[in-house]
Amino acid sequence: MEAPRPAWSWQFAPERVRQVPAVPVLEDITPEWAWGGATGAGIKVAVVDSGIDNDHPAIAGRVKGYISFTEDRDGVMHVDEAPHTDAFGHGTACADIIRRLAPDCELYSVKVLGPMLTGKGTAFAAGLRWAIEQRMHVVNLSLGTTKQDYFSLFHELADMAYFRNVMLVTAANNMPVTSYPSLFAAVTSVACHEGQDPYEFYYNPEPPVEFGAPGINIRVAWLGGGYMTVTGNSFAAPHITGLVAKILSKHPGLTPFQVKTILRATARNVYAGDGGGPPHGGERTADDFPSASAGAAPI
Question: Concatenated DSSP letters for the chain?
Fold first, then answer.
């Protein structure tokens, strides 16, 4: 029996991907120009998640900094900058995907989730605020909150990041529910598609979810030095995060707006306006995709 698709991913199914006309002035922006030869060197990437296993062979000691946020029953926030490991495997999986694309980026593990992949919204917000204040270049957020009480707080943080040139890449919720900060315009929101090419991503002309990247039946690093095959929007976001790290490594100083424009220009479904065909990869067919069988991973 085929597992249900994560929410929002239907927009990137082979038969549903819309072909988008290129903006003529942007047609000279190619993947080679955008990130060709870049490795992510010099770029700080925060992974706000369940922690990262720095000893996993796929991570190879690339974690340069740690911080964890936990709130106790009395509402007191505890902050710990000691090295930590992954409480679940989710953060290590995201870091693995990022490193495949940007092997020389610097990873920072911001731990806000526990063994059940749950945590307090206040701890999540504190971790995100730390990443922004530390001037990370890009922050991977394969998590979110559905609680309306946190709308204003996360809206404020998303705007703060945008104005400080910290790019937030967020996974859309796996369920068709309102979730923050993935629905804010100041972030780059991502859902999954069935492709396996890490460079295959698509632009959605009808946000809030703007991009589709691989996230179905993806083999990733997990706990104990092992690997797991996973499905979920959580694993689409780090593909875009890795590309962003490459873009910023090759073109330092770009703003989130500029990076998002480059992503739009280089998406596989953006076609040359003169009818001459797609400049960046060609149209997909149903034969290009494996069937989805793994369960949806939580975010």
Answer: -PPPPPTTGGGGSTTTPPPEEPPGGGTT--HHHHHTT---TT-EEEEEES---TTSTTTTT-EEEEEEEEE-TTS-EEEE-S----SSSHHHHHHHHHHHH-TTSEEEEEE---TTS---HHHHHHHHHHHHHTT-SEEEE---B--GGGHHHHHHHHHHHHHTT-EEEEEPPSSSS--BTTTSTTSEEEEEES---TT--EE-SS-SS-EEEE-SSEEEE-GGG-EEEEBSGGGTHHHHHHHHHHHHHHSTT--HHHHHHHHHHH-TTEEPTTSS--TTS----GGG-PPP-SPBPP-
Higher pLDDT, 297 or 67: 67
Confidence band of 181 (pLDDT split at 50, 70, 90): very high
**Where is average pLDDT lowest: 18-27, 120-129, 181-190, 262-271?**
18-27
Q: What is the mean pLDDT of residues 177-201?
A: 97
d(CA 143, CA 249): 25
Range of the domain at 97: 9-16+28-288
* In-domain check, residue 101: yes
**Burial bucket for residue 100 (CB in 10 Å: 0-12, 13-18, 19+):** middle
Please state the domain count of the chain.
1
- What residues form DSSP beta bridges with 106? 44
φ, ψ at 190 (rounded to 5°): -135, 140
In a domain, 116, yes or no: yes
Domain containing 181 — which CATH number? 3.40.50.200
* Amino acid occupying residue 214: P
Residue 37 belongs to a domain: yes
The whole-number average pLDDT for the span 109-136 is 98
Indicate whether 23 belongs to any domain: no
